[in-house]
Structures are given as C-alpha cells and as structure tokens.
Amino acid sequence: MSKGIKITNRELQFISLFESITGATVRDCIIDDENNRVIYVVKEGEAGIAIGKRGKNIILLEKMTGKKHEVIEFSDNPAAFIRNALRPARLREIRITQRTDGKKIAVVSVDPRDKGIAIGKNGKNAERIRFLAKRYFDISNISIL
C-alpha cells in the first residue's frame, strides 16, 4: 500500500478477492459506487497478469461482484502513471508544471480520435485520473486537450 492512503474493510475484501483470483499485487483500491466500478492500482509490470488472458480475470470478478473492474498499472513517474490510467487512449504529450501558487497541474494532449476514450462517458475517466493524480502525486488538476 502507498504511504498515507487509508483502505477501508470493504476495500480490503475486494483487494483480497482480486489478489486471490489474479495473483497480482494491489497497491490501492477505490470503490466507486456512483459508477458501479472498482478501480485497482496494481504493482508496476503486473497489469497483464491482473487482467488475464483475453480479460478472463476481470470477467470472472465482474460476474462475482456485479461491478465493473478497472486495472491501472502504477508508476512512480507521474507522466507514466497518467499514461497508464488513460489507456487505451493514444496520448501525444503530458506536461506537468508547477504554478506560481505552488499547485501542480498536468496538461494531457490526446489524439483527437481518442479524446472520448480519455474523457470517458460523462467524464468518468477524467474524474478517475484527477482523483488518482491528486492522491499519488499531489497534482491538483489535469486538463485533457
């Protein structure tokens, strides 16, 4: 687990189930009841085993829990993490800057054909990456262009 992130008992149950089915190591788990999904941040290099061949692990988890499951591969590099979180959208550039007031912001340039994928239905993917970037890297806002 990452420093300073508190995991609830309910999230621990989801992590335990996920790890027992996939064999991947979970760094973080966010239950998003509003969008009926569970977001897992897995150890670097373990996204493939977490998802499984042809998505079999995710399909099994979704049948068991009735929720959508999303996997994001962790990276200590904020730009790489943002890239991982916005997959499969093709990103052109990620710029992370610090404003004069001290707040960090990220500007993500996306291939125009993939802008809808990056933002997600009703902005849910953009909301997810803003939450995670704040949680891990203290990035206060992400603009997707």
As residue ranges, the low-confidence spans are: none
Shape by Cα distribution: globular
Question: How many whole angstroms does the radius of gyration measure?
Answer: 15 Å
Q: Which sequence of strands runs across the widest sheet?
A: 1-2-3
Beta-strand percentage range:
25-35%
CATH topology label of the largest domain: GMP Synthetase, Chain A, domain 3
Give the domain tally: 2
SS field, number of helical segments: 6
Structural class: alpha/beta
Write a structural description.
By secondary structure, the chain is an alpha/beta fold. It folds into 2 domains: 9-73, K homology (KH) domain (GMP Synthetase, Chain A, domain 3); 78-144, K homology (KH) domain (GMP Synthetase, Chain A, domain 3, 2-Layer Sandwich), CATH 3.30.300.20. 39% of the residues lie in helices and 28% in strands. It contains 6 helices and 6 strands. The chain has helices at 9-22, 47-51, 56-65, 78-85, 115-119, 124-137; strands spanning 26-32, 37-42, 68-73, 91-98, 104-110, 139-144. The protein has a 3-stranded mixed beta sheet with strand order 1-2-3. Strand 1 and strand 2 form a beta hairpin. Helix 4 packs antiparallel against helix 6 (124-137). The model has no long low-confidence stretch (mean pLDDT 94).
